[in-house]
Amino acid sequence: MTFKKIAHQFKHEELSYDQLPNYQPCIKLSFYFNKLPEVSYEQFHRHWETVHADLTVAAKDFTACKIQRYVQYHQDLEMKEKAKSLGLVHLDFDGCSEIWVKSWEDWEKFYNVSQAAMSASITASG
After folding, report:
1. ∠ at Cα 16 (12, 17), nearest 5°?
2. Could you tell me if 97 and 72 are in contact, meaning their C-beta atoms sit under 8 angstroms apart?
3. 99-116 burial by CB neighbour count: b if 16+ within 10 A, else e?
4. Structural domain spans, the chain
5. What is the architecture of the domain spanning 25-125?
6. Are 98 and 28 in contact (CB under 8 A)?
7. Rounded-to-integer distance, Cα 101 and Cα 67, Å
8. CA separation for the pair 102, 68 (Å, rounded)
9. pLDDT tens digit at each of 126 positions of the chain
């Protein structure tokens, strides 16, 4: 299939067909999860946005593995209800973490180091 330009008056010339795209290639990995039933929403979100975030970005491998961006999206009960009230298909989750990397190899390196650290932590505490 051949690309066909449509007649369009661009308001932002930098987005026009004749310009080079401003690609900033990254791989964005998204992880959706729910809190445990016995944990309150307040406890879950406060722990995740403080302790967990600090542990994540303070890890030496966070920089060594070239993590470009770490994002947390907190979805509270009010937002869940608002989305449902619009009649939208709704993914039921309490939190979503995004990790951005430049290459799949950077992600694998971070993942493997993180998994090893988690295993060591579980072994040490158990």
Report:
1. 175
2. yes
3. bbbeeeebbebbeebbee
4. 25-125
5. 2-Layer Sandwich (3.30)
6. yes
7. 5
8. 7
9. 688 899 999 999 999 999 998 888 899 999 999 999 999 999 999 999 999 898 888 887 788 888 899 999 998 888 888 888 898 777 889 999 999 999 999 888 888 776 655 554 444 545
Q: Radius of gyration over alpha carbons of the chain, in Å? A: 20
Q: Which pLDDT score, from 0 to 100, does residue 117 have? A: 58
Instruction: Determine the residue type at 62.
Output: F
Residues 56, 62: contact at Cβ < 8 Å? Answer: yes
| Two structure tokens written together for 50 | 């403080």
Residue 32 has phi, psi (to 5 degrees) of: -105, 140
